Every structure is written in C-alpha cells, then in structure tokens.
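Exam review. A common question shows you a sequence with its structure tokens and asks you to describe the fold in words. Practice with the pair below. Do the first one on your own.
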Amino acid sequence: MSKSRLLKVFIYLLLCAGAFTMLVPFLWMVSTSLMTEQEIYQYPPPILPERPIWHNYRNALTALPFGRFFFNTAVMSFGVALGQVALCSLAAYAFARLSFRGQHTLFIIYLGSMMIPTIVTVIPRFLVVQALEGMNTYWALIVPSINSAWGTFLMRQFFLTIPRSFDEAAKLDGASNLTILLRIIMPLSKPALATLGLFSFMWTWQSFLWPLIVTDRMNMRPVEVGISMFRGLYSQNWPYQMAAAVTVMLPILVIFLLAQRYFIRGIALSGLKR
C-alpha cells in the first residue's frame, strides 16, 4: 500500500475516533434518560438500561409547563435569528459595497467588539431593559441579542465574493442601494444567510444566563432555564433531566440536518475574498 493511501486511512481513522469521542456524551445522555434512578447510581454504571423507561420523557415534560417553555424559546430564537439576518445584512452591505471615510478603521473597531466578553455587557443591558420596563417581555429576550459582529463579518465576506458588475448594472437602471441589497445581493447570498440564521438560532436556543436574568415568571421562562429548575423539584433526578435535555436538543438537530448543505457552502465561500 502506498504512503498516500496509508495517510488517507490514518486520517480517516483519526476523524472516526474524533467523531466517536464527540458522540459519546450524547449517546450517554440518551441512555441515561431511559434508566431508573437506581441504575444511575450503580457502580460501575451500566452502559445501557436494563429495560428502557420511556415514561421518563412523559413525566419530565409534564412536571413543568414545557409546552410554554418551548413556545417562549421558539419565539426568542426565531426573533433573534431574523433580527440578526436583517441587521447584519444591512451593516455588511455598508462595509462591503459602500465607500465612506474611515470605513476600514470603523470595521476594525467593530470587529474588536468581539473581544469584549459577553458577561461584561450583561449588567448594562439589564439596567437598560429594567429602565424601559421590559422585564418578562419577549422584546427583552430578543432585541438585546440581534446585533452580531461575527454575523456582520460573515455576511461582509460573502458579499465581497459577488461581482460588483451586478451593482453597477442595477444602478444604471435606477436602483437604490436598498433595492440592490434586497433584490440582488441577498438572493445570491442564501448560503451565508442560512449559515448566520442557523448559528443564531442554535446559540439563542441554548442561551441560559440572559433569559434567567430578564424573566422571573414561569410563563416567560425558556427551556434551558426550565431544565435547571428540575434540581429544586427532584433533587438531581438525572433520568428526568436527561430526558428533558434530549427533547430540547432534537429541534436543533433537525434544523441543522435540514440546513447543513447551506451551512457548509456558506462557510466555504465566506473566506474566498478579502
């Protein structure tokens, strides 16, 4: 066997080992969700349940109003995803297609904001929301998160791959910058838009700290906060917690599988041009 073939086999085995390592925690989570509490505390712990306890899912999802939690999380996640797609596209168009004084410097400063830890901005954002009487509202969960420097950078890099001749032809026909963005640039940027929307949705779906701070009513809690409330109800009932965690993970997994081709293409094309 040639050296190149051996190298490919080695890389393939290495990637399989890495993939297996990444999957083990999720497989363990699913297995734990189907066990009894007695099986959880056995030593050594069993890999698979002796008999799957499917009613753990029913009990976990009815112990708290998870239907409301899922609705709140869906509204928050879709709201933030749509907001970031719209706002980042506008900012990216300005940095990629318009020319103005200090453009490069402003873009560097804007990217520099990514170095500021999110936790540093929590208190100022909370004080603003509190002053505007926005506690326990959907806008408090959505609006503070619709700005993304990373999303703007991603969209700008993709916009740079689109030939400027399209813009020039549209301007000859009297199109404005907004018309060019909405009718030419964005239809050609579906992979990048899907990538940004998918990342935004996933990050928001699993957010915990900010929703915990701006909501204190049960009917406004998202699913991540709901899962943490099991500790007070069931004193670390791990099967229930894992059952709820598996249910929360499924929507993200389904959306990723449906949009993965856009995701891969968007990431691949976003760095083709400086």
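Now try the second one, then compare your answer with the model answer below.
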Amino acid sequence: MRDVAPFRADHVGSLLRPPELKQARARYHNREITADDLKTIEDRVIQSLIAKQAAVGLRSATDGEVRRSMWHFDFLERLDGCEPYTPEQGIAFQGAATQPKGVRVTGKLGFSGHPMLEHFRFLREHTRAIPKMTLPSPSVLHFRGGRKAISERVYPDLAEFFHDLGRAYQRAVQAFADAGCHYLQFDETNLAYLCDPDQRKIIRERGEDPERLPAIYAGMINAALAGRPPDMRVTMHLCRGNFRSRWIAQGGYEPIADLLFNTIAVDGYFMEYDTERAGGFEPLRLVPKDKVVVLGLVTTKTGGMESRDDIKRGIDTAARYIDLDQLCLSPQCGFASTEEGNELAEDQQWAKLERIVEIASDVWG
C-alpha cells in the first residue's frame, strides 16, 4: 500500500450529515439552541465520523465537511474582501436547485485568518489517521458569479483580481500548513465544467472567453501552492456537479488534460469516472510519472453497490493508459457537497467506502 497521500483507498471529503446534526442545525436556525450548543453537537458527530472512517480501513480522515452548509461558499465568504449575499435563485442542477446563496467581491482580496483553521485543528487532534483538509479551488470565486460578482470599482481589471486571489490562497495554504496540515485538496469543478460545450456557451454569453480560463485558473492554483512545505501533499478533485444526487456538466477530460496534468503543480487528481458523462480513460496517457490519479469509479449519487468485478475492470482499463502503480481508488465525489446530502442512506455510504478499501487491497496488496 502507498505510504503517502493520496492512498490506494481514499475518499473525496464530505459525508452525509447524521439526523442528530440536521436536527441541531434546524434548531439553531430557529434560535432554539446557541452556537455553542451546535458546536458541541458538531464536535460529537465529527468524532463519530472519524471513528467510522478508521473502522472501514481508510488511512486518511476528514471532518466530513459537516460544519459547512455548502462545500465552497462557507470558505469563500470569509476571505478578506468577500461577503455572502442572497441571489434571486440558487444554482441549477439537473432537476433541482440549491438554496439561493452566493459570494461577491466587494473589497481587496486577502487572507487574514479563517474559522476553518480551527476546524482543521479539531480534526487533527482527534484522529490517528492522516487528517485531510478540503478547500474550494480559487477558480470557484470567479466561475460561479463572473464579472457581475466582482466589484468593478475595486477590480476594474480582472487580471489584478486573479493575481490577488492567488496570493490570498497562498497565505491560506501556508496558514493550514502552520496548523499541521500535510494533506490538502482543492475541489476544482470548473476545469471539468469547461469540457462541456453548454457551459462554455454560458461563459461566452456573459462576455468572457472559455478558451483563456483554464490557463488563468491553472496560474492561480500554482500561485496558491508556491512556497508550500515540501511535506504537504496536494490533490485536486474534479467534478461535474454534486447536489442531492444531481449534476450540471458533462464531457470528457481531453480538452484540459495536458494543462491539467502537466501545468498544475499538484501531486494527484481525484477524477470523476462513475458514468459515461466523464468520458474515457484515454486522457490519462498524459499523466507524468511522478503524479497519481485516484479513480472515482464508485458513485456517491445512488446507494446501489457496484460489483467488485466491474470496479476491477475499470481499474484494468485505466491501466492501459497509465501505470497501475500510479492509480488509486475512491468515490467519484463527496457524499454531501451540501448539507442536504445525496440520496442514499448512511449505511450505504459506509458500505461503499468499505468496498473501496477491500478492492484496493485486492488490487494493490
């Protein structure tokens, strides 16, 4: 088995919120309990989730992202120069929409601290596994709202916005390193979205060039990771949308593959591969020998269990394009990118993670 992250059997990050936590959050919003009461319950739930991750055999651990309402906005809205707001509508998925929530840029971007640093410290202090921190990629702050969500008074030139955002993330990465983080993940949905002609059309219609964005996003990510400690392993998760088992985009990785694997300075990639919407494994031929791909062959969108033989066939097919020793296995995404969670049961979630550990042991020893 691999001794460094990502591990042969790994997972993306988010986990289903147990009923106890959902009830507590509702009571908090109704002002029936205090913030301290809610934190006490969150702490207890996270300790239970840590124990369950260990019990199924995972070598990394996350806090399940259970203190967040959404995987991205909860981090972005606390960056210097950002503020939350309520848009007219939520993010549209296939057959559903999120709660109306957004983040806009109203001042100069920066990083001067964040509540999630304490969230990570709690995780680190309560696990014997390798604690993993997940953050939205810097591209999310631009892609989601575009020019309309970025003050033209503060940033008349978007080049300065991209520069400052990369620098803010660089400070964030260092802050998590100082907090003891050795396993960091950027959740990067937008490079995968830019493989979808419909999403590219949306970008053009709002007055931006989808041909230029991948290189801009890669530059921000590399700026964020400049100067990271040599013992910090960094991965990137690629996704086409994950909300209540729905999705947004489709299209294989080929349009971004060379830039993704050979320009962006991460150590590994968690890649969605649970449906035909993600295309084939052919782009993996471009992965350099010093990088790792975690195959997301197990879906988090339904509770049905994939067969061992089907998963092993997927691994064998991928190994036609990349060395087997450069591969690992995981779910295709988190189980609850938002607090609502995907449409499967908790016991199905844990069974899938246990199946991943078993298959990884069979394949890699």
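Model answer, second protein: The domain at 19-364 is CATH 3.20.20.210 (TIM Barrel). The mean pLDDT is 97. Full marks require stating both points clearly.
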